[in-house]
Design a protein that fits this description.
It comes from Calidithermus terrae. One of its GO terms (biological process) is trehalose biosynthetic process. It is a single chain. The protein has 457 residues and is of the alpha/beta class. The protein has two domains: 241 residues, Glycogen Phosphorylase B (Rossmann fold, 3-Layer(aba) Sandwich), CATH 3.40.50.2000; 205 residues, Rossmann fold (3-Layer(aba) Sandwich). It is 46% helix and 19% strand. A hairpin with a 2-residue loop joins strand 10 and strand 11. Helix 10 runs parallel beside helix 11. The protein is globular, with a radius of gyration of 22 Å. The two termini are 16 Å apart. Bound molecules: adenosine-5'-diphosphate-glucose. The site of adenosine-5'-diphosphate-glucose has 21 residues, from strand 12, strand 13 and helix 13.
């Protein structure tokens, strides 16, 4: 059976160097998860062709030609309304419970429908009987139904990578029916944690009147399985990288340059990630612990994203002001309390940071799962993970120090607790985390979902 993967972002991006064009693998979980499966099974990946619009189709991986990438060119106006508009100003803030940030505009919705239709048409062009179709994420909710209407017998899976909110929040979306019906075109709907699956099923009951048996939603004439499949990380590859002498040297160098104890935050610059709240809590900690001055340092790496959306630009300015305030208030000759970095890191450099950190702060206000928490736990040898109870990963990573990111006092206390945790306890917690991460790694996620899809109906 061939596999057709459908996602907004492409797995490899075109990069021009002089006259030469290279295809560079995208950083992130989806490429890491699905590129190996497509290499093995063969098939097609359908995605938005970002750049080099005239190239509609390319064989991947470069030079190996194991599967085909079909690239959809989007006009700038389509991108504005479908991607920055409906996806990132409506569905993203709504799903993360930020109702004060939503913009529900008819113009966005129209573009979203149009672009989803184009993705579905691209799937129909390459689909052969027996193929599995796996659609990803909130940008493409309507694709499962559109494919189902044309191919009633197709096997379609859908994975939602962000939180599924309570029905009270979901119902604020003027197109709540259409989004649910779009997704219910799939045979299997996957989310990261059981709570999101419960919310999804209750939305189907309350909004559409479709019952469920605690697992599957009964849509007219078809049952749709709704289940949690928490994504994993490439635990073995991360652990191996952490053993390389180059990465170990880089980690030691970081600890020497930054100073210790070394606190770390790594996030996409997004208002859901709780970066200002984390900085406030760190300031609170410094205010209470004069003995930490000159010693405890926070390295915050935040890669800008979606900068065309106002809220993201404002957040960047807010963080810069906060960093300036903390460094101005507490800094002294030879010690800068917050090191703030806004560039993307290569994987080796990222792993060196994880290895160097005494405490990792993963404190989103709301997060579908959060891969950074898992990557850190796969790499670290003596660090403590402080994890928000509102990240999906908290449902699995019980050995982390769980915190409420809105509670600055509690977060400041957790920093103190992490820094004074006995070595033996740190190692014990990490050992248990690692054990789970190796058993439920990235390939287990991919296989688990595809197995469910193959077994559907
Ligand atoms: P994201 O919101 O992007 O993903 P996350 O799960 O943390 O959040 O993944 C971020 C990825 O980017 C990680 O692999 C991390 O290593 C990498 N990254 C972050 N900052 C970086 C930097 N400065 N340099 C290099 N790499 C960096 C969405 C959902 C999540 C869900 C994932 C997967 O919002 O909740 O876990 O999809 O389903």
């Amino acid at each position: 059976m061939g596999l057709i993967v459908v996602s907004n972002r492409e797995p490899y991006s075109p990069v021009r160097e002089g006259h030469e064009l290279h295809w560079k693998a995208a950083v992130g979980g989806l490429t890491a998860a699905l590129d190996p499966v497509l290499r093995e099974r063969g098939g097609t990946w359908v995605a938005w062709g970002d750049g080099e619009r005239e190239i509609r189709s390319v064989e991947l991986p470069p030079g190996e030609g194991r599967y085909r990438l079909e690239r959809l060119p989007l006009r700038e106006s389509e991108l504005q309304d479908y991607y920055y508009g409906f996806s990132n100003r409506a569905l993203w803030p709504m799903s993360h419970y930020f109702l004060n940030r939503v913009r529900y505009l008819g113009r966005y919705w129209k573009a979203y429908q149009r672009v989803n239709r184009r993705f579905a048409e691209a799937v129909l062009q390459v689909h052969r009987p027996g193929d599995l179709v796996w659609v990803h994420d909130y940008q493409l909710c309507l694709v499962p139904r559109l494919v189902r209407e044309a191919l009633p017998e197709a096997r379609i899976g859908f994975f939602w990578h962000i939180p599924w909110p309570s029905s009270e929040v979901f119902r604020t979306l003027p197109w709540d029916h259409e989004i649910l019906e779009g997704i219910l075109g799939a045979d299997v709907v996957g989310v990261h944690v059981p709570e999101y699956a419960r919310h999804f099923r209750s939305c189907c009951r309350i909004v559409l009147g479709y019952d469920n048996d605690g697992h599957a939603v009964q849509a007219p004439g078809r049952a749709v399985r709704v289940e949690s499949f928490p994504i994993g990380v490439e635990a073995k590859a991360f652990a191996e990288l952490a053993c390389s002498s180059e990465v170990r040297r880089a980690a030691e160098e970081l600890r020497r340059q930054v100073g210790t104890p070394f606190l770390l935050g790594v996030d996409r610059l997004d208002y859901t990630k709780g970066i200002p709240e984390r900085l406030e809590a760190f300031a609170e900690y410094l205010g209470r612990h004069p003995e930490a001055h000159g010693k405890v340092t926070l390295v915050q790496i935040a890669v800008p994203s979606r900068e065309q959306v106002d809220a993201y630009r404002q957040l960047r300015e807010q963080i810069e002001r906060l960093v300036g305030r903390i460094n101005g208030t507490y800094g002294q000759a030879g010690w800068t309390p917050v090191h703030y970095i806004t560039r993307g890191l290569e994987r080796r450099e990222l792993v060196a940071h994880y290895l160097a950190a005494d405490v990792m702060l993963v404190t989103p206000l709301r997060d579908g799962l959060n891969l950074v928490a898992k990557e850190f736990a796969a790499v670290s040898e003596r660090g403590v993970l402080i994890l928000s109870e509102f990240a999906g990963a908290a449902a699995e990573l019980k050995e982390a120090l769980l915190v409420n990111p809105y509670d600055y006092d509690g977060l400041a206390r957790a920093i103190g607790q992490a820094l004074s945790m006995p070595e033996e306890e740190r190692r014990q917690r990490l050992a248990e985390l690692k054990d789970r991460l190796h058993r439920f790694d990235l390939s287990a996620w991919t296989e688990g979902f595809l197995h469910a899809l193959e077994g559907a109906r």
